[in-house]
């Protein structure tokens, strides 16, 4: 990401988030995913919608988008570059005169750019991470009113009030200057408790660049999340600066958690023997990751992903038994683990030669601080042993609620083909779930996701759970009852754990009828 003498900047207001902003975000997302006039009820949520602005986009060349982006423009000049992360591009957002006005106002006040420090970091240890110069200025300080107009326009297209933003940060990058890979949101586990949080950022490019200067998203579509990439090579989704164009990207997911991003927090691993299989079990605390006291469940914020539940171990044991009895093989299969947490069942699938293993959890922080490092620790251990581990296994990680995470998962059946034979890469061969059916309120969305993600050719689903979860109403029997009533899947009980001292636990196997 080296630059050839460019003025980058007008980084509008990395947008802040007091409590009242949740309402604004709700209405923004509602308008974004639905039609502006509420007249497209039957259309997919990824369809582009005309917005408020009517500038012409004639002559605009479409940018290369990521795997989840869209390749055409709507009447309003924006292009969806990616849905994971959420990134939108606005061509010709500002005029050349406005860009020059901002440059002229800022250039005499530029100072070396500063950097927010994580716990344990110092100015010396972070030297060289951010080498640009910059300055902060609010719209009220600009006598030309250029920033006022830009700010109003940003508020209009994002539907986010001007009062919820920080000051503009105008940045200049000289030749060979850069800002290393980073994230705009601040994880409490790394930066300490946050009174507010950055939801999104809007970049306004003030000049053209002959070479370099790209803004990159290395984790687009769940790629490169094992950290094995060189940011200087600009991997993933890349956006090249063009004078007057804008880039909007979100740092938080719709559920309010940080998009998978930051380094791991206080991760420790210890060996665990599961039915003769040695796996590594990671350990982090809710205090380290979420900045709150240890808790198994905080509805809507934390769903227990940092705790190793018995159902995960039951599932690994059952999978091992199925393999020994030659009723299951992971070799060459696509596997999805829902509600992964530690990811032990998915890690077991890796050890058995799966072609692809994708991990999903409600909390991005769980993926960041537990799942990814735990997978990495186990695969490194496998490489040193005689495991069947396929070093080419495709590993990806997805955060989000079961009601909408299918939008970013790569192997999903079309709505009208659920339960029908579909050739090609639609659906996963094996879906693994441990302790996911605890809440009665979430069962419908979970089951709908399972149907959309299971390959209709030969797909199977393994569900490990307690027979009944007291206090929240869910359980394996209630979930199986829903499955049998629907009639799409058949269900077979393959394992039961009843030790007399704890809740009865079960493992069920589902398959299309």
Automatic annotation (TrEMBL):
Short name of any one Pfam family annotated for the protein: 2OG-FeII_Oxy_3
The keyword Metal-binding is annotated on this UniProt entry: yes
Prolyl 4-hydroxylase alpha subunit domain ranges (all copies): 85-290
Subcellular location(s) per record: Endoplasmic reticulum membrane
Record membrane topology: Single-pass type II membrane protein
Catalytically driven reaction(s): L-prolyl-[collagen] + 2-oxoglutarate + O2 = trans-4-hydroxy-L-prolyl-[collagen] + succinate + CO2
One cellular-component annotation, GO: endoplasmic reticulum membrane
GO MF entries: iron ion binding; L-ascorbic acid binding; procollagen-proline 4-dioxygenase activity
Listed Gene3D superfamilies: q2cbj1_9rhob like domain (2.60.120.620), Vaccinia Virus protein VP39 (3.40.50.150)
Cofactor dependency: L-ascorbate
Keywords: Dioxygenase, Iron, Metal-binding, Oxidoreductase, Signal-anchor, Transmembrane
Keyword Iron: yes
Origin superkingdom: Eukaryota
InterPro entries in the record: Methyltransf_16, P4HA-like, Pro_4_hyd_alph, Pro_4_hyd_alph_FE2OG_OXY, SAM-dependent_MTases_sf
Name of the protein: Prolyl 4-hydroxylase alpha subunit domain-containing protein
Lineage: Eukaryota, Viridiplantae, Streptophyta, Embryophyta, Tracheophyta
